[in-house]
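Session log. Operator J.P. requested a structure for one protein chain; no other inputs attached. Running the standard single-chain path with C-alpha cell output.
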Amino acid sequence: MKSSILLFNPRPDPYYKPVDLPLSLICVSRFLDKDGYPIKIIAENLYSDPYQEIRESAKDSLVLGISAMTGLQIQGGLKASQIAKEANKDIKIIWGGWHPSVHPNQVLESPYIDIVIKGQGARALHDVVERIEAGENYKDIPGVIWKENGEIYTNPDRSLEPIDDWPPLPYHLVDIEKCVMVTEFGTRTINYVSSYGCPYRCSFCSEVTVNNRSWVGLNPEAVLDDLEKLQNQYNVNGVNLYDSLFFVNVKRAKAILKGIIERGLTIRLGNLDGRAKQLAEADDELWELLRESRTYSILCGAESGDQESLDAIDKDMDVEDNYKFAEKCRQYGVKVIFSTLVGIPMQNRTHQELTQKTNSQIDATIEMLDKFLSYDSRNRGQMFIYMPYPGTPLYDTAVELGFQEPKKLEGWAHMKLYDKQTPWVTSKQAKLVSMISSYIFMFLDSDTIVWAKGRIENPIKKLFFVSAYNIFAEIAKFRWKYKLFGFPLDYQLFLFAKRNNKTI
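Structure written below.
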C-alpha cells in the first residue's frame, strides 16, 4: 500500500475563511492521484480546525506539502510545518508555490522545511514522493532544492512541460459542495486552470523568473471536456479561470469559446486574464465569440495611467491601449477588472522624486480608472502598491533604492499588497491606495451586492448587510465623484465590519 500524502493550503486573508477551491493543491495532486496515493487536502473551508487536522493526519503521513504565496500564507505554512514535525519527526515537509519558487534557499533555512519545489510542481512532487518512499535522493529531479545534513542542494530548473497528456484535475479529492462559490456570473462557481506561464516580460512579475517567459496550454477539446464534466457531474454554472494569461494563443481561445457554444454548455466563464494591447487589436471574431459564449469578465493588468511607469515595468504597451481595450469591452458587453500598480521604483531617482512620482502615478491612474468605470457600472478597478519579489527584474532596482529585504522567511509573512514596503512610498499614500482599492472600488462595482448577498444564508444578516451596503455605496460614490479621500471615518467603520464578519 502506498504512503499517505498530506497537502495544506494556508489562509491568504486574515479576516475571513476562504470559500473557494484549493486549486493549487488539486493541480499538484494529478500524478499522485493517478498512481493511487491516498491524498488528504486540508484547507480552512474544508475543516473547522485545519491545524488539529494536520496534527492528527501527520502521524501517518509520508509528506506534508504546502503551497504558499508571499504574505499571510507563509505564517500559516510555518505553523503547519512545525505542528507536523512535532507529530511525526520523520515526515518530510515540502513547500511549493510562488514564494518558495522565488526564494528557495531562505525557505529552506527554516528548521521545519526539508524540500522546495520550484515552478511547475505536479510531476516534480510525484517524483519526490516516490524517491522518499524508496529512500533515494532527489539529485536528478529538475526544479527540486533540498536540505541534507545542513547543506542545501539545488537541481537545475524545471522547464514548463506540455500538459496535454497530464491526468485530469482530481476534483474528487475535496468536498465540492464546500468549494463552490456564489459569484456574479454563477451561483455555483468553481476554480479551474487551463494553462500555465506567460511569455511577456513585465519586470515586476514572478512569472518572468519562475517560468522563464514560457507558456503551455491544454488543448481546446480537453478544456471543453473538463468544462462539460464540471457542468454535468458537479452542477457547476460558473468557472473562475486561474490562467496567468488565457489569450496567449488566440486560435486556442477561439476554439474553446466556439466549443462552449457548439456543445450547448450553459456554464459561464469569468475572470479570463488578458493583455489590453493584444485584445484591443484582436479581430471581431474573438469578440463575437466572447459575447456569444456569454463570457462574463476579463482581468486586465492596465498597471498605470502614466506612460513613463508603463515603460519602467517593461509593459510593452501604451496607456492608449488600455482605453481601446476598455472600449471593446463596452461594445461587446464584457466586464473588466483593471489591476493597477503604484510606487514603482525607477533608476536614478531620489526617494523624494519617487514619492512625487508615486503621487503622479496615483493621480494618472485614478483619471484612467474613472473613465473605465464610467463605461460600465460592473467594471472594477484595483490599485496595489508595488511589492518587490525576489528574482524579478525590478527587484534589484528596488534593493538599490533602499528596499530592506526580510532576512528570514517569517519576515515575508507580513508583506501585504496595500502596505508600505519601500522607503519612497509614504504611509499617507499607502492608506489612500488601500482605501481606494479595498473600499471605494468594492462599492462602486454594482456586482458586489450580487455575490455578497448570495454568500449570506441567514435572512436577518442578509437584510442587515444590504442596508449597510447601500449606505457605504452611496458614500463611496460621493467620494469617488468629487475625489474626496480625506477623513475616512466610513472606511475605518468598513474595516471594523470586515474584521468582524467572516462571511464575505
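Operator note: The chain has 21 helices and 17 strands.
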